[in-house]
């Protein structure tokens, strides 16, 4: 399908392979209460975003004396950090070499009790939709709610209207 035709078809669904869900759950649980972030790869097939693989972003070496809030900020900003973009591109290159679906389709993050709509989350998704691919998504795994018995993973994108308003500086967190 041509690029322009693919952009014109709506993204109707997100399909996540079980192994990807397990990798995200494991990464999120291991880093809890700090935010876990990583990349998701797969394919866009006729309006269905098929997520077939994921990998975590490297965690920076953080001195033990730093407080929890600064650790959270570093982790939350990881998806758009230059070092992680280079790491992501290298990982995708390696995945292609072994014939794995390796189209960047977005990123994932963990949250606790649904608290994920932050300026970092919006900046990350804006960056992905603007710089990577307008059809990328953010997968959000709620560790706290999932530990209560039912898996909570949701997919989000920014609307074209929001993208335009954010680009023009018409949106603020206030």
Automatic annotation (TrEMBL):
UniProt organism field:
Cryomyces minteri
Q: GO CC annotations?
A: eukaryotic translation initiation factor 3 complex
Q: Please give the name of this protein.
A: Eukaryotic translation initiation factor 3 subunit H
MF GO annotations? metallopeptidase activity; translation initiation factor activity
Q: Which residues form the MPN domain?
A: 14-162
Which InterPro entries does this chain map to? eIF3h (IPR027524), JAMM/MPN+_dom (IPR000555), JAMM_MPN+_peptidase_M67A (IPR050242), MPN (IPR037518)
Question: Which Pfam families does the record match to this protein?
Answer: JAB
Q: Which domain of life is it from?
A: Eukaryota
Record flagged with keyword Cytoplasm: yes
PANTHER family according to UniProt: EUKARYOTIC TRANSLATION INITIATION FACTOR 3 -RELATED
Keyword line: Cytoplasm, Initiation factor, Protein biosynthesis
Q: What is the lineage of its organism?
A: Eukaryota, Fungi, Dikarya, Ascomycota, Pezizomycotina
């Amino acid at each position: 399908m041509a690029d322009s035709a693919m952009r014109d078809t709506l993204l109707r669904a997100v399909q996540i392979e079980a192994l990807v869900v397990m990798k995200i759950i494991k990464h999120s649980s291991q880093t809890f209460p700090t935010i876990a972030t990583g990349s998701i790869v797969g394919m866009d097939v006729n309006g269905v975003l098929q997520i077939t693989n994921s990998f975590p972003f490297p965690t920076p070496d953080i001195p033990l004396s730093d407080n929890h809030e600064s650790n959270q900020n570093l982790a939350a900003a990881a998806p758009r950090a230059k070092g992680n973009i280079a790491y992501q591109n290298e990982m995708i290159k390696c995945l292609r070499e072994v014939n794995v679906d390796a189209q960047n389709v977005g990123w994932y993050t963990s949250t606790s009790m649904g608290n994920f709509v932050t300026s970092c989350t919006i900046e990350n998704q804006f960056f992905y939709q603007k710089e990577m691919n307008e059809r990328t998504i953010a997968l959000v795994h709620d560790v706290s709610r999932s530990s209560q018995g039912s898996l909570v993973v949701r997919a989000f994108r920014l609307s074209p209207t929001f993208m335009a308003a954010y680009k023009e500086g018409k949106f603020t967190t206030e």
